[in-house]
Write a structure and sequence with these properties.
The chain is an alpha/beta fold. The protein has helices spanning about 10-15, 15-40, 55-70, 80-85, 105-115, 130-135, 155-170, 175-180, 185-190, 195-200, 220-235, 240-245, 265-280, 290-295, 315-330; strands at about 45-50, 75, 95-100, 120-125, 140, 210-215, 235-240, 260, 285-290, 300-305. GO terms for molecular function: carbohydrate derivative binding.
Length: about 350
């Protein structure tokens, strides 16, 4: 249970995110670059990514980075193929990246051990360098988020995103620090706009269902925001790629159920435009998180200060108002975001 007033832990950890981002850029970039150099020397041809929950959404973000920036074929693993079915894949020349806040889930540890035995280069990305997962992998990256006490993961998610971005940039010969340097200050500006998000949350106090959509780098944000809404407020929140939304699920959109669109400034946002037009044609209650122009054309929204921020870094900013939205909606519904029912900090799937 939470200490003090409802949501105290989650609120404190959301507020820590600018400091965590600074810490990664100043203290974490060097170790990440060293790990990347060791991995690059092994010459992996393709990449498999593993995670659960919030960390699975971070892994999906890394999949976009690796495929777009590095041109490496990537996949998200099904851990049960090795943990439940005892499959023996040949992972020669493969990099396997396991992403986990705690590094304690048995299936992540077991699948990483199996991957290493199958010939893969294995990397754990965790918030706990002493965890079983960190010990099971050949290489480890500490996301330096500090202890996370709230059950809903917030600061560890953005820390994972930035660490994975720096890893990919280092794998292609750079370091990414200069491109990401503005993130901590921009994150502070977004987090300071709490009252704006609180007003927005009033639209969703009585929502029975929500739909979130995006494309490209923004799609992991849609999935993570949906997860946060479900695990804190218990509102069924469905996340779709904009392309997938048009292939059937659009039929359930009406003028009652809210739709949140995450519009990344760049190619992903351009690809989403046709979806936004269709949603408006259907009279959807459309809320946009993205550039000011897109917010002005929607029913409501939250404008992001992303001008000049590379498209691949915008997800680190996009999720911040959506974390706060989940928090505020949960409080408005009389629930405690620090104490979601049926959740544990380490989920021991096998």
């Amino acid at each position: 249970m939470s200490a003090g007033h409802p949501g105290q832990l989650m609120a404190a950890e959301m507020a820590e995110q600018p400091a965590v981002l600074r810490r990664i850029l100043t203290e974490g970039a060097g170790p990440i670059r060293e790990v990347a150099e060791h991995i690059a020397a092994r010459g992996p041809r393709f990449v498999l990514l593993t995670g659960r929950g919030t960390s699975d959404n971070a892994a999906l973000y890394a999949k976009y980075l690796l495929e777009i920036l590095l041109g490496k074929p990537c996949g998200l693993t099904s851990m049960s193929t090795t943990t439940a079915y005892a499959a023996k894949p040949d992972l020669t020349d493969c990099l396997v990246i396991a992403v986990s806040q705690s590094g304690g889930s048995p299936d992540l540890v077991s699948s990483t051990v199996s991957a290493r035995e199958a010939g893969a280069v294995t990397l754990a990305v965790t918030n706990n360098p002493e965890s079983p997962l960190a010990g099971a992998a050949e290489f480890h990256i500490d996301v330096l988020a500090g202890p996370e006490r709230a059950l809903p993961a917030t600061k560890t998610y953005t820390a994972e995103l930035l660490a994975l971005y720096l890893l990919v940039e280092s794998l292609r010969g750079g370091d990414g620090v200069a491109a990401a340097a503005a993130l901590p200050e921009l994150a502070e500006r977004i987090i300071d706009r709490q009252e704006e998000v609180r007003r927005l949350a009033g639209r969703y106090r009585f929502a029975e269902r929500m739909v979130l959509t995006s494309r490209g780098y923004g799609y992991p944000t849609a999935r993570e925001a949906a997860l946060k809404l479900m695990e804190t407020s218990y509102i069924p929140a469905l996340a779709y790629s904009g392309a997938d939304l048009l292939h059937g699920p659009l039929a359930m959109v009406d003028n009652v159920s809210p739709v949140i669109a995450i519009v990344t400034e760049g190619r992903g946002g351009q690809a989403l435009q046709a979806v936004l037009d269709r949603l408006r044609d259907r009279g959807a209650d459309l809320v946009v998180v993205g550039p000011q122009g897109q917010v002005d054309a929607a029913s409501a929204g939250f404008a992001l200060p992303t001008a000049g921020v590379p498209e691949e870094l915008q997800p680190i900013l996009e999720i911040l108002p959506l974390q706060r939205l989940a928090y505020e909606v949960t409080l408005a519904r009389g629930q405690d975001p620090d104490a979601p029912r049926a959740l544990a900090k380490v989920t021991e799937t096998r």
